[in-house]
């Protein structure tokens, strides 16, 4: 679990984190320990959304089915849904960037970081592009050449 705690990377914080004790939290895709649960974003002090990075389903050969590929942008309906939640409630988004694995300890690791018991210490191992145009303009075999990335290689904040 220590590796999971150390891999959590904080990219932006507008004073929401760490969560204060007693904060009512609406969650999607993650169970947080130690915080009262809210049934909807409207009933919450903070929303925490655990999302997977977008990808396109492929119908190729057997090997291709093991790799996520395609457009890196979230579908517009998902952006609209997240934006509606964030417009109503301060929102923390936890994005899993990579292939999912069975790691039930992530709930405890995320809870510890969100509550301020542990400091986030992860650093991005790659650029996070600002658009699909930037992705298309970058060279696939050259690391860190993304034009004007949203967050660059090595970025990560702490408390």
From TrEMBL:
<feature type="domain" description="Glycoside hydrolase family 3 C-terminal">
    <location>
        <begin position="40"/>
        <end position="159"/>
    </location>
</feature>
<dbReference type="GO" id="GO:0004553">
    <property type="term" value="F:hydrolase activity, hydrolyzing O-glycosyl compounds"/>
</dbReference>
<dbReference type="GO" id="GO:0005975">
    <property type="term" value="P:carbohydrate metabolic process"/>
</dbReference>
<protein>
    <recommendedName>
        <fullName>Glycoside hydrolase family 3 C-terminal domain-containing protein</fullName>
    </recommendedName>
</protein>
<dbReference type="InterPro" id="IPR002772">
    <property type="entry name" value="Glyco_hydro_3_C"/>
</dbReference>
<dbReference type="InterPro" id="IPR036881">
    <property type="entry name" value="Glyco_hydro_3_C_sf"/>
</dbReference>
<keyword id="KW-0378">Hydrolase</keyword>
<dbReference type="Pfam" id="PF01915">
    <property type="entry name" value="Glyco_hydro_3_C"/>
</dbReference>
């Amino acid at each position: 679990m220590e590796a999971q705690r150390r891999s959590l990377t904080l990219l932006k914080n507008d004073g929401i984190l760490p969560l204060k004790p007693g904060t009512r939290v609406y969650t999607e895709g993650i169970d947080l320990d130690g915080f009262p649960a809210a049934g909807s974003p409207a009933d919450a002090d903070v929303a925490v959304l655990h999302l997977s990075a977008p990808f396109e389903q492929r119908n190729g050969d057997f090997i291709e089915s093991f790799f996520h590929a395609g457009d890196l942008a979230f579908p517009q309906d998902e952006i609209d849904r997240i934006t509606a939640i964030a417009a109503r409630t301060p929102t923390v988004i936890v994005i899993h960037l990579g292939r999912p694995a069975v790691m039930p300890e992530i709930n405890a690791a995320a809870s510890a970081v969100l509550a301020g018991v542990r400091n986030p210490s992860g650093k991005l191992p790659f650029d996070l592009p600002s658009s699909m145009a930037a992705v298309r303009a970058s060279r696939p075999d050259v690391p860190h050449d993304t034009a004007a990335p949203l967050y660059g290689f090595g970025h990560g904040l702490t408390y």
